[in-house]
Amino acid sequence: MVGIKRYLVIGVSALLLNQAWAAPEPETSESAQAVPLTQIRTFVETFETISAGYVEALDDEAILNKALKGMVSSLDPHSEYLTKDEMAEFDEQTSGNYAGIGIEVEMVDNKLTIISPIDDSPAAKAGLKAGDVIIRIDDQLVSGMSLQEVITLMRGEQGSEVLLDIDRDGQIKQYSIARAEIEDSSISSEWLGNNIAYIRISQFLGNSSKEFREKLQALQKQQPIKGLILDLRNNPGGVLQSAVGIVDAMVDDGLIVYTDGRHEYSKTEFKATTEATLLPKAPLVVLVNEGSASASEVLAGAIQDHRRGLVLGTETFGKGSVQTVVPLSTGGAVKLTTALYYTPNGRSIQAQGIMPDMVIPQAKVEVEKGRFFIKEAELKGHLGNGTGGKERTSSDVDNKLNDLAVSDFQLFQALSMLQSAQQFLVK
């Protein structure tokens, strides 16, 4: 068992040197002091047993890494020990550009579950959906793997293929998906008519707040925004500060979100600032669903609590915990759950999610085709409008709303609501 004592000393020294997350002072009673020594002795004996007797030869570092991974991952589904190499991959993942298939996954009831596929990613194009359970990646079962190990298997050279076995509602389906560069752009926008703007945010990256403000300002230059639909469906979250910045662009005062945990460093507050507000009054609808998680839920909860807009769709995922990446002296790190998110009114998101103000499930709508109809203006000898208004015939009827109802029922409902309520809402 080469080097086990040296590793233990380094580990303890690293913990003591990390003052921001130092452990509390130990109890001074004799029984309390004996417990750590007993546990350390058990650890060393277990280490020696594995080193000497396991069917495959493992070096000290491999055994220790497995021990550390087991210790941290057993805390909750989001805490994880990262080796030096995994930490480098983690940094690449959060930068916004990488070669993969574009999905966000979490362990749900010990099952590797897709929270959401990223818009226009290979996964989304292949047909993967929120709620799908990944059973196998290429020839490896994912049971017992850490999230970082899963991410490593998913990554590869651009154009290479990964084979996934997916459990969807009890049926196993297999998908062969080519990896591609996942771009760092996460926001798109368009006009839906009647001065109603639509902005889609697929994930929160480091630059998403800046990108959102640029999109909003570009729309405002084209024409006044009399209503905004903010689409967070299947947005798995990401960088909290980006979500806070987007709320700040629409709310001019007050608390946006706060975090609370055992340590003083886990207690934070994020507040709106008047000077950052770009759209304080235009009517707003936020679309969410079961694939909206983490920072998406923070944003939706803040909009709800400030009564800034209407949250529409289905209940969100319920990921309301904060993970802090604590670097270690070895180059690795511990991604540790250190706090919970709370909305401005003190609601915890964790394991509950955000309940929409108006629950509208995504539905399949069929619109009757080819139906013949006429309007009064097409009748021979019809009377004029009386006030000089333009007459409308059947050819003037806009079928875009019908098409939208078929393609995206939730968005159709959001648009119909804003169009119907425009005259009653503050402009």
Describe this structure in words.
This protein has 427 residues and is of the alpha+beta class. 31% of the residues lie in helices and 23% in strands. The chain is built from 11 helices and 19 strands. It has helices spanning 4-17, 30-53, 60-73, 84-95, 122-126, 147-154, 208-222, 240-248, 295-305, 400-407, 409-421, and strands at 80-82, 98-100, 103-108, 111-117, 133-137, 140-141, 161-168, 171-178, 180-182, 187-191, 196-201, 227-231, 255-260, 268-271, 284-288, 310-313, 321-327, 333-342, 358-359. Helix 7 runs parallel beside helix 8 (240-248), helix 8 runs parallel beside helix 9 and helix 10 crosses helix 11. The longest helix has 24 residues, at 30-53.
Keywords:
alpha+beta; 6-stranded mixed sheet; 5-stranded antiparallel sheet; 11 helices; 19 strands
Strand order of the largest sheet: 10-11-12-15-16-19
Please report the number of helical segments: 11
* Spatial extent as radius of gyration: 27 Å
**Share of helix, binned:** 25-40%
The assigned structural class equals alpha+beta
Number of strands: 19
Relative strand content: 15-25%
Q: What does the oligomeric state look like here?
A: single chain
Global shape: elongated
Distance between the termini: 73 Å
Strand-helix topology:
Layout: H1 4-17, H2 30-53, H3 60-73, E1 80-82, H4 84-95, E2 98-100, E3 103-108, E4 111-117, H5 122-126, E5 133-137, E6 140-141, H6 147-154, E7 161-168, E8 171-178, E9 180-182, E10 187-191, E11 196-201, H7 208-222, E12 227-231, H8 240-248, E13 255-260, E14 268-271, E15 284-288, H9 295-305, E16 310-313, E17 321-327, E18 333-342, E19 358-359, H10 400-407, H11 409-421
Parallel strand pairs: 11-12, 12-15, 15-16, 16-19
Antiparallel strand pairs: 1-18, 2-9, 3-4, 5-6, 5-7, 7-8, 10-11, 13-14, 13-18, 17-18
Helix pairs in contact: 7-8, 8-9, 10-11
